[in-house]
Design goal:
Layout (H helix, E strand, L loop, with lengths): L3 H10 L3 E3 L3 E4 L26 E6 L19 E3 L7 E3 H8 L1 H4 L1 H7 L4 E6 L8 E2 L3 H5 L8 E4 L13 E4 L7 H9 L14 E3 L5 E4 L4 E3 L5 E2 L2 E2 L5 E2 L3 E2 L2 E2 L3 H4 L10 H5 L4 H4 L4 H5 E2 L2 E5 L3 E7 L6 E7 L4 E4 L5 E7 L1 E4 L2 E4 L13 E4 L1 H6 L1 E5 L6 E7 L16
Antiparallel strand pairs: 1-26, 2-3, 3-6, 4-5, 6-13, 6-14, 7-12, 7-15, 8-11, 9-10, 9-12, 11-18, 16-17, 19-20, 20-21, 21-28, 22-27, 23-26, 23-28, 24-25, 24-27
Length: about 400
């Protein structure tokens, strides 16, 4: 039975804005950072075999590639119909049904839907050195490449975990053979591949863009990550914080005949980008302020790439503003409370697994262009939202402004 009548009714009642249910995703490796506002009793809500919950996904129309025990729709966003009951439908179904009415003609024509999602990444320990596949390599295993960007919100980083620096690529003097030898030795012992890399200490309130093909080992800082519709990687570090990652993590996204081909595995790297001597100049993303007055401040926090972008919006206490955007977007409230269009909006203190919330929304293109009225109902605290867009926002800065480099 078609959900079209319910989808249309919910869309109309919400004024072109969907309220989304929280999506928490476990990972079987690493330690949970416990900064997701999830109840302490719920970090193993899906059982010990699944591992602790370490991510929250936003505006997702794809399922997480999370092993054989994962549900078919794990990681996918659902629209909440009412606070009065648990009725819902997936954001993917809504976009499949209403199409351009939600995401606009351009995205429907080029991608057939919503091409990105975002997440909060929340590990206590640093993540393994890994590379997201470039599009041509991902296509060989029936998947998409994965460009992604990072932003480190102050509101969710009261502490920065065990290691607050991220490795990107390799030192410019690294030779290909040095990396290949570490890959050959994957099962012999700790290869310490990050000895060949370079790390940058995380600066809260800033971010980075990571192209597919660039190896990286993210810091133990809660990270807001707008990224392409893909969950695909090759893990090249075999021991992290004392935890062993089997060789299958290295070759899981290789065609069967290439799983023992070191040249093929090495070539999953975009070598020139990995040894870029001006890596920070090219991929560091300081915030770019686009509007600032006594009512609100808005800044780009992800930009200058062909795939995803994001803003941080801060509305001052007691202020009512109308903010226009040039494309559809998803948004998550990380501080304060008030109104977001027709919806109540609040950053949660603590959520139970499976509970509804009032902090996440998806805004249709027409509504975004018309403008969303946002009311900060607090007399003392700012209302802060992060907004993630696909590749079609024409207002996104194409480069890092010279004064910020």
């Amino acid at each position: 039975m078609s959900n079209r009548p319910l989808i249309e009714k919910t869309f109309e009642q919400g004024g072109g804005i969907f309220r989304l249910n929280p999506v928490f995703v476990p990972r079987p490796f690493g330690k949970a950072g416990r900064r997701l506002k999830l109840h302490p009793d719920d970090y193993y809500a899906l059982g010990l075999e699944r591992g602790s919950i370490k991510e929250r996904w936003f505006s997702s129309t794809i399922a997480a590639q999370n092993g054989p025990l994962a549900a078919a729709d794990e990681g996918m966003s659902y629209v909440a119909v009412s606070y009065e009951n648990s009725e819902k439908f997936s954001l993917k179904e809504a976009i499949d049904t209403l199409g351009a009415q939600i995401v606009g003609e351009e995205l429907m024509k080029k991608y057939g839907g919503w091409p990105m999602y975002s997440k909060f990444f929340d590990f206590l320990n640093p993540l393994f050195h890994h590379v997201h596949l470039m599009f041509e390599d991902a296509k060989r295993v029936g998947k998409l490449g994965k460009p992604e960007s990072y932003y480190f919100p102050r509101q969710l980083n009261n502490y920065t975990g065990e290691f607050n620096a991220t490795y990107f690529g390799f030192d410019p003097d690294t030779k290909p053979e040095e990396v290949k030898q570490r890959l050959r030795d994957y099962n012999k012992g700790d290869t310490r591949i990050t000895e060949l890399s370079r790390a940058y200490r995380v600066e809260l309130g800033t971010g980075w863009y990571t192209p597919p093909g660039v190896i990286h080992a993210p810091a133990s800082v809660l990270t807001y990550e707008p990224q392409w519709n893909s969950d695909v990687n090759s893990v090249q570090e075999n021991v992290v914080s004392g935890e062993i990652y089997p060789r299958e993590f290295l070759v899981a996204e290789c065609p069967p005949e290439k799983k023992n081909d070191i040249e093929y595995i090495f070539n999953l790297l975009d070598w020139e980008k990995n040894i870029d001597p001006n890596y920070k100049k090219h991929y560091y993303r300081p915030p770019v302020i686009t509007h600032s007055d006594k009512a609100y401040t808005e800044k780009w926090v992800s930009y200058a790439n062909d795939y995803v972008c994001a803003k941080e919006l801060t509305v001052e206490p007691g202020q009512t503003v109308s903010v226009k955007d040039a494309a559809a977007y998803g948004t998550i409230c990380i501080q304060g409370h008030g109104l977001f269009g027709k919806h109540f909006c609040e950053a949660p203190t603590l959520l139970r697994f499976g509970q509804q919330s009032s902090d996440e929304f998806f805004v249709a293109e027409g509504t975004a262009k018309q403008g969303v009225t946002i009311v900060n109902q607090s007399p003392v605290e700012t209302l802060v939202l992060l907004k993630h867009f696909g590749p079609n926002n024409p207002e996104m800065p194409k480069t890092v402004p010279a004064e910020l480099r």
